[in-house]
Amino acid sequence: MNIVKKSNRIDDTDELYITGINNYYIYNSENENNINIKSEIKRVNENKIKINNNEQKEVDNIEFKNNLDNKIFQQKYKDFRYYKSSIIINNVIKISKKPLIAIGSLAICYILISALIIFNIEGEIFDSFFNAIYCIFIVSLRTIGYRDFSPITIEGRIIVMISSVCSIIWMLIINIRLILIKEIFEYIYNLRI
């Protein structure tokens, strides 16, 4: 009987490799009969293996092989040794989803309303509504400001100043929320250990 991976004996690493995957095809080289085994192949000694807790079988040349599906599965999910952390991160995202969506929605509404106000007040500077959105987002919300759009009227300058102050408050809210998400993650992680 042959099981396909060139070695004349099964050592501990081979046993670990075999028990990690479900389906292995063990075939008899004389008959070419495929037998699908869905459990562990255990080493008894150098020339004997135990299959499905049945009787021991003598083998001359032991080789191991997994089928193509298992190779793809093994390759795709090889890094799931960090599975516990990914479950915790998924739970933290589920817990924090609604507040993050609320913060993002408020930011988008704020950008659109401020852009509409400044577009109506500073109509000479902005050719389109998109330029007003760009001005509010880059100049005031991100506080970068390339001086490509700057308000001329007093009302426009007041709107941009208010927008800059609101953007600082908005950034503080986001940072506080991220700190809370970190605390939730640490709490859930410590519960699972």
UniProtKB/TrEMBL annotation:
Ranges that cross the membrane: 100-119, 125-146, 158-180
Domain (Potassium channel) ranges: 108-174
Gene3D superfamilies, per database record: 1.10.287.70
The keyword Thylakoid is assigned to this record: no
Any matching Pfam family: Ion_trans_2
Record-linked InterPro entries: K_chnl_dom (IPR013099)
The keyword Signal is annotated on this UniProt entry: no
Domain of life of the organism encoding this protein: Eukaryota
Alphabetically ordered keywords of this record: Membrane, Transmembrane, Transmembrane helix
Coiled-coil annotated spans: none
Name this protein carries in UniProt: Potassium channel domain-containing protein
Protein source organism: Neocallimastix californiae
Origin organism lineage: Eukaryota, Fungi, Fungi incertae sedis, Chytridiomycota, Chytridiomycota incertae sedis
